[in-house]
Each structure stands twice: as structure tokens, then as C-alpha cells.
Amino acid sequence: MKHQLATDLVHAARQGATAGGWHVPPIDLSTTYPTPNPAEASASLDAFVEGQASAANPVYSRLHNGTVRHFETAMAKLEGCEDAVAFASGMAAISALILAAGGSGNKHIVAVRPVYGGSDHLLSCGLLGNQVSWVEADQVAAAIRPDTALVMVETPANPTLKLVDIAAIVAQAGEVPVAVDSTFATPVLQQPIKHGAALVIHSATKFLGGHGDVLSGVVACSQDWAARLRQVRILTGANLHPLGAYLLIRGLATLRLRVLAAQANALELAGRLSAHPLVDRVYFPGMSGSAAQRCLFQRQMSGPGSVLAFTLRGDALAAETLIAGLQLITPAVSLGSVDTLIQRPAGLTHRIVDAEALAGSGVSPNLLRLSVGIEYLEDLWADLEQAMSKAIEPTHLAA
Hints:
This protein is an alpha/beta fold. It has two domains: 249 residues, Type I PLP-dependent aspartate aminotransferase-like (Major domain) (Aspartate Aminotransferase, domain 2); 141 residues, Aspartate Aminotransferase, domain 1. It contains 16 helices and twelve strands. The strands form two sheets. Strands 1-7-6-5-4-2-3 form a seven-stranded mixed beta sheet, sandwiched between helices.
């Protein structure tokens, strides 16, 4: 029976558990498993090495873990995919994807900025043997080469919230698979597979976990892609810990409630910030950008989410002074938690990105990224107001 997303978020990870007699998927902390039948164990090992999701005997937790598998099957269902593979972090997931994509000898990747600073640096430095062509969203087709293995985009983009038209990228990519980092949106607000993407990436550390206490990444995809990703995970050992998988399963049950509650706060704060005389510009899906961006938002997303960015009528020092003056909102990287976090991307998450590329992506020194939580709205606004009053001194104002 087909259910709505709100129901699947609660039940998707429980289906296999109830068949085993549990109401909640158990935490399997075993590192190794008894192998009384040598032939069965050998056959199981062969199956895992080939990229299969399960076998008669788990053999060893780097090959398979039941708790992690519950989370993976839930994510596959939520993203409308055949399968999903979980990793120890979002960067581990992206690294595995790059390695899996280049397995046939194709090392070239086409990517659209901006993306998360760590992703940008990994693609650009060539550490994993890849080459990258950074292009605008309408230049993807021209950048495709015979050895292009993957097209990668992030939408909404980190940290400017710029939207990328997934269907248009897919059309340009042709036979080349498109991977979409959908961390900011979550399955609640956006499902890239419906727009033709082949792979969906999440830093599960963020909204999927939602409480700032688990580090993880996940890729939702086809069974063929999942097999390749599992092969990389087995060899690199980038496994998600079962306790992390348990926390993610628990987080999924409240994901929609948290996303919608935080989004309501973000909508109000975005409006108030845009009207504030000391704020130069607010970046928020559906509210900022061109008419084309607003139209794309209506077509591709069911809501703007709870991450926004804004620039003060001042310089980097003004932005840093605002952060230092906050009393409730936490100055920290990461996002998607129940509490509100703020950071200056040019100084932290995107500090390792080439300065020229950073400027070209619209990431100015005075840009602040705000991940809005589920606190009482007026408390958040009062904290922002008092901090802004301290931040904008004459010496900090832009010329």
C-alpha cells in the first residue's frame, strides 16, 4: 500500500524490524559474526565484495550491519529510489561517489557552483584522481566530454541558497548521471529523482539527524549505483556506526515536523531581516533572486526550508561583530539542528575555496548563513536585533 511521505517518515525504517519481532530497529553493535558454516560464510563474503546489500551471513560489520541497513532502506523509500548507501559522513559519501563514478576510467566531473566548501575543495584538488570543470548551470552540455563520469550540483546551494533547475541539468547531461546534493531541502521539500536525477546526496548530519549529535552521509540511488558505492565503502571502511544509524532512524520520524516548524520561523525571520535598515540583502528560496528563480522554486520545491543567508550593510568585521554579540543563537558551522546556528561562510565553511571562485559564486566577506531552529520566534528575533545594533558601527560600514 502506498502512503504519504509523512507516514513513510515514521514507518519506513520499521518495516524490517517488525518482521523480526521488534517495534524499533535494534542497535547491532557486533563487529564480527559467528561463521559456523564455512561455505556459507565464503559465499556471503563473495556477495558483499560484489556489492550486494545482504547475504546469508553478515561476516563482519564493515561488510554489513542490520541497523545501518534499516536506515538505508528507509532513505531509499523516502527519495523514491531502489536503494541507498550510508557512510560515516557527508564527505565520505561524496568521496565514495567520486571513486565509484571513476571506476570505469572516466575521471571527469562537471559541477556547478556554489556547493559546500568541502565538496568544492575535494572536487578541485584532484586528490581522488578526478578532473573537474566548474560551469554555470546553462553551460553543462558544452562541458560534457567522452570521459565525463558525473554531473554534480547542490540545490538549494550552500551558502547562497541559489536554486539549480534539476530537470534542465539532466537534459543537458544526456547519458551522464546527475548527482544532486539535497541536504538543505530534505525529502520533505524536494525529491530530485522525480526531476530525473540519478543520485541524491545528503549530509545526514544535518536535518536527517536533526539534533547535532550524529555524523553521517547517505546516497540514494539505483541498485547498480548502490553496489558500486558499497564496494568502495567496504574497501575504504567509511562505514556509518550503528549507533549513528539508530539516531538517524529516530530522527526521520520527526523530520517533517522539525522541517516545517523551523521553516515557519525562517519565513518570518527572512521577512523581518529583508525589511531591516541595516540588512543589505537576504537570500532565501522563493523570496530572493530573479523571477526565473522564484518560478523554479514553485516548480521544484514544496517549501523554502529553514536555511537563509543575509549580508549586512557593512564589511566582514561587521558580520563578525554581529556573531560575537549573539546571546541565544549559537555561532557554529553545520545546520539543520533544532537550535539556531549562524556562521560566516567566507571565514569558515568556504574558507578553503578559491577566492576568485568564491566571489564569482556570490559568497561575499559579509555574508552570514543562518540555520533557523525551532525556538520561540520572538526570542530569536530579539537576539538578532540586539546583535545587529552592536555590529553596525561607522567604522564597519561599507564605503
